[in-house]
Amino acid sequence: MPLTIWIGLGITFVMFAIAGRRFFWLFRLITAGQPAPGRFKDLPTRIKAELVEVGGQKKLLQWSVPGVAHAFTFWGFTILFLTIIEAYGVLFQRDFHIPGIGTWSFIGFLEDFFAVAVLVSLAVFVGIRVKNSPKREGKRSRFFGSHTGAAWLVLLAISGVIISLLFYRAAAINTGNFPYTNWAFASHALAYLLHPLGEGVNSVIYTVAVLANVAIITGFLVFVSYSKHLHIFLAPINVITSRRPRALGGLASTPDMSMEDVGDNDEVVFGAGRIEDFSWKQLLDLATCTECGRCQSQCPAWNTGKPLSPKLLVMELRDNLFSSADRLAEQNRKYQLAGTEVDTLVPSVIDPDVLWSCTNCGACVEECPVDIEHIDAIVDMRRYEVLIESRFPSEAGLMLRNVENQGDPWGLGKAKREDWIASLDFEVPVVTDTIPDDIEYLYWVGCAAALDERARKGAQATARMLHRAGVSFAILGKKESCTGDPVRRLGNEYLFQEQAQTNIATLESVGAKKIIATCPHCFNTLANEYPALGGNFEVIHHSQLLDHLVSAGRLTPGGGYQGTVTYHDPCFLGRHNRVFDEPRSVIDAIPGANQVEMKRCRERGFCCGAGGSRMWLEENLGKRVNMERTEEALGTGADVVSTACPYCMIMLDDAVRAHQKEDDVRVLDLSQLLEESLDAEPVSVGAPSPDTASAGESGEAGDGPEGPAQA
Ligand code: SF4
Ligand code: SF4
Which of 141, 231, 368 to probe ligand 2 with, by most ligand atoms within 8 A of CB? Predict the structure, then answer.
């Protein structure tokens, strides 16, 4: 056999051996994780997601310039796989072509087109990396904290693949070995330049370039297996095994919890205290991260100077996973628990301030191009901290006790749950036994809307709108209790399950079938989390119902409101549950409302800072998230900031007051805005309605909760 074959196959064998050993090591490491049930169920949905997200590069294309560049690189390498076959064929036979398609002009064109497209994309990546360099932009750069050196090496390696490819094709043309016509435009252009060197030199170039191409590709394979570019191989597996339709909405379901299991049963894992407590899918997430920083760039915690970056969190856990490899391979979990001291992830790997900064807003999950499930991992670590170590911010303890003892986070108790209906000029039925047949909906009011003076205004306006449209509804009143969202997001899964089971029993006992929720957190929990515990109800958010009533002509907005409105997307309504259009459609239906969008809206909406149980935690690191969001809202020039969530309303209203803008800008629930528009007399722009002005005053002096914990 000629020397070129020995060299080519020798390089390939060595590189494949090194990469194969590494992949086997990774396989053992990842499969050391806990089970992740259901990750192969509903294959058609998973295959569709794979085709759209990996094949179609859907998420990446949302970032126009880098997305297009990445898509061309991905598609390019898919097509250029043909050239790899051709390079290996050439080792054996200099005029090799792929049987069947290997002489088609179109294939030659496609190969050249994508070779050039990849080169152009690489130039774009260089530009992006220079422009967004952490050296220039500091923490504002999405690459801050990423392994940027490795990224440059990858760009160099890909350039090497393409350049050696074009050289061997050009030399093949000049030596009469090229199987394609001049549709292979780039190869022919380079051949024209190399032609004066003569056939002998071109023959040498041909051999050297083919060997270089094989060496760079196989060397790249080895480099990939040791770097963040593992995603080239792991992303398709990670995407197809991700939670569907997405890892937003409800948290991943957990087994029924019993505190008696703690200590008695080593097999029961309460959250994640050590790396091996994560499921194999969560470990796969860690290995798949590309360090692109898209999650970091959208994270409200990171953007307001908190220590939490979802990217850095993933990278730190990944480092811990890799450094724990020997332990995971050699010891089983029981043995570790029995005799080996292993530091817990918090605080040895993840700082508590990082863990408790998360608002569960979902921006990271939304943005991640490889479908990493950050929130589930964060809540798993919180569960371990709360349930096993009893370590959590001290102010959260009061909220947990309040939910446990009084059924609401503020501890105001059941007695006040019906107060909000007292000022309505019609009767709201309170269910005592079962919901009467002539009542269509159960209105799940939620703790904030029932107990907070400002949020009550939204509940009252919603009730009036429903009444006006002839929608029959009743409330649970004193039978209603916290859905458990704040305690679950804080990590107290045990208390959540208690709350959920009590509420499900109540809802079933009164015969609830159709539920309206004004609070997106209640909406999310009732619709997406209760089914795993046996509670199956048809749940609608009030913004969806109002939109339906307006479109059906049962509510006709009038000229009562004239002004400019900006709508703030509540994370648990928008990103978590994809309710983006309905609230905007209600505002659009108001003749006098000029709707303006904030730059960060819809899927990229910026959190108010209250989710993930942050509503009840001090915020003494960095800038307050609600201040950041409100500044953006004020920047639109709107005189109304509308939203559809009592938490958001409280947070934004607080920030408007902190900016001393309450005389110019009102924070209104969608239902309040709609109700105002129904009035015949337009109000003057900028003047707060008597309702809202009094809401603010009573919010400060009233007996309701005082909103979020203040720094
Ligand atoms: S859920 Fe939101 S706050 Fe938490 S890490 Fe992700 S982007 Fe940051
Ligand atoms: S977690 Fe996802 S979005 Fe964040 S850096 Fe990694 S790959 Fe990028």
Answer: 368
List Cβ neighbours of 80 (8 Å cut-off, separation of 6 or more).
Answer: 111, 114, 115, 118, 161, 162, 165
Question: CA-to-CA distance for 429 and 426, rounded, in angstroms?
Answer: 10
- The SS3 of residue 666 is strand
Per residue in 406-427, is it b (16+ CB within 10 Å) or e — as a string? bbbbbbbeeebbbebbeeeeee
Which two tokens mark 362?
């979902």
Amino acid sitting at position 278: F
Handedness of CA 182, 183, 185, 190 (dihedral sign): negative
**Residue 332 scores a pLDDT above 80:** no
- Coil, strand or helix at 266: coil
Alpha carbons 520 and 581: distance in angstroms, whole number:
15
Contact present, 285 and 377 (Cβ < 8 Å): yes
Buried b (16+ CB within 10 A) or exposed e, 440-455: ebbbbbbbbbbbbbbb
3-state secondary structure of 370: coil
Ligand 2 lined by 230 (C-beta under 6 Å): no
Residue 363 Cβ inside 6 Å of ligand 2? The answer reads no
To the nearest 10°, the Cα dihedral for 28, 32, 35, 39?
-30
Count of CB atoms situated within 10 Å of the CB of 257: 19
Question: If we measure between CA atoms, which residue out of 492, 485, 561, 473 comes closest to residue 529?
Answer: 485
Residue minimizing CA distance to atom 5 of ligand 1: 310
* CB 289, CB 311: distance < 8 Å: yes
- Nearest-10 crossing angle of helices 646-658, 453-468: 130
**pLDDT tens-place string over residues 217-245:** 999 999 999 988 899 999 999 999 999 98
CA-nearest residue for atom 8, ligand 2, is 292
In contact, 447 and 410? CB cutoff 8 Å: yes
pLDDT, tens digit (0-9, with 9 covering 90-100), for 3-22: 889 999 999 999 999 999 99
Question: In Å, how far are 72, 232, 413 from 113, measured between CA atoms?
Answer: 10, 22, 69
- Nearest to residue 707, comparing CAs of 452, 395, 397? 452
* Tokens read off for 209: 């370039």
Q: Any idea how long the chain is?
A: 711
Ligand 2, atom 2, residue with closest C-alpha: 368
Read off the pTM.
Answer: 0.91
Any residues with CB less than 8 A from the CB of 58 and at least 6 apart, and which?
A: 52
Confidence of residue 697 (pLDDT cuts 50, 70, 90): very low
Q: What type of residue is 285?
A: D
Distances (CA, A) of 631 to 623, 624, 659, 676, 693: 12, 11, 9, 25, 21
Quote the ligand 1 centre to 358 CA distance (angstroms).
5
- Contacting residues for 176 by C-beta, under 8 A, at least 6 apart: 95
Atom of ligand 2 nearest to the CA of 146: 5
Question: Which ligand number lies closest to the CA of residue 303?
Answer: 1
Token representation of residue 346 = 């918090």
- Judge contact between 275 and 600, C-beta under 8 A: no
Ligand 2 pocket check for 598: Cβ under 6 Å: no
Write the residue with the smallest CA distance to atom 8 of ligand 1: 299
pLDDT beyond 70 at 680: no
- Which of helix, strand or coil describes residue 565? strand
Q: What is the pLDDT of residue 694?
A: 37
Give residue for tokens 């597996």: 237
Q: For residue 612, what pLDDT band results from cuts at 50, 70 and 90?
A: very high
Instruction: Tell me how far apart the alpha carbons of residues 293 and 309 are, in angstroms, rounded to a whole number.
Output: 9
Nearest-atom number in ligand 2 for the CA of 315 is: 6
- Going by alpha carbons, the residue nearest to atom 3 of ligand 2 is 368
The tens digit of pLDDT for each residue in 115-131 reads 999 999 999 999 999 99
Residue 130 CA to residue 532 CA, distance in Å, equals 47
